[in-house]
Amino acid sequence: MKISSFNECALTMTDEDIVGAMKKIPGYLDITPSDFMEVYRVAFDHALSRLKTAVRAEEIMTRPVIFVHEHSPLPEVVKTMAEHGISGVPVLKADGALSGVISEKDVLRRMTGDRSLSFMRMVLLCLENSGCMARNLKKLTAADIMTSPPVTVTGQSPVFEIADILDRMNINRVPVVDKDLKIVGIIARSDIVKTMC
């Protein structure tokens, strides 16, 4: 799901729209439609600039964060994700610092070796082959399949910047960390969508 910016969502305003709006304002307006449009553009750009920095990660992040440790057995990691209904989980080092992230994509990729595998393609492979393709994963740990280094943001990161990171990196969530790489929250695409609506 692509998260659109306000620029992509902006409507094109015509002279007819401007004249119609000006007629609805009671009283006399000593301004031409082109002057009105220029004021509108400047005000819109100002509002957009303000909104881009107004909401920060710390205001919308989810906490407490569900996480696993590097040494966590993979079956335990998958169970944690399934029980909490999440499609990704941060992986912490023994000292609590963020080490990586595991997503459903990481698990699917490890099961098949196919980097572009979709969930339905994986189901098809399971149906065509005898036995469970996940069986080979039982002896692995979180550290064996996590994506590292993880993409992170800070509590002060603007939401628009985070939306751009999620879109550009094609990821669904990003951990929020402090200066010591300790996880303080997590932001999913759904958190950003709620903020923009």
Short description:
The protein has 197 residues and is of the alpha+beta class.
Write the layout of secondary structure elements.
Layout: H1 6-9, H2 15-24, H3 33-54, H4 57-60, E1 68-69, H5 74-84, E2 88-92, E3 98-103, H6 104-112, H7 119-128, H8 142-145, H9 159-169, E4 173-177, E5 183-188, H10 189-196
Parallel strand pairs: 1-2
Antiparallel strand pairs: 2-3, 4-5
Helix pairs in contact: 2-3
Relevant terms:
197 residues, alpha+beta, CBS-domain, 2 domains, two-stranded antiparallel sheet, 47% helix, 12% strand, disordered N terminus
Summarize the structure in words.
This protein is of the alpha+beta class. The chain has two domains: 6-54; 59-107 and 141-196, CBS-domain. It has helices at residues 6-9, 15-24, 33-54, 57-60, 74-84, 104-112, 119-128, 142-145, 159-169, 189-196, and strands spanning 68-69, 88-92, 98-103, 173-177, 183-188. A three-stranded mixed β-sheet has the order 1-2-3. A two-stranded antiparallel sheet has the order 4-5. Helix 2 (15-24) crosses helix 3. The chain is elongated, with a radius of gyration of 23 Å. The two termini are 15 Å apart.
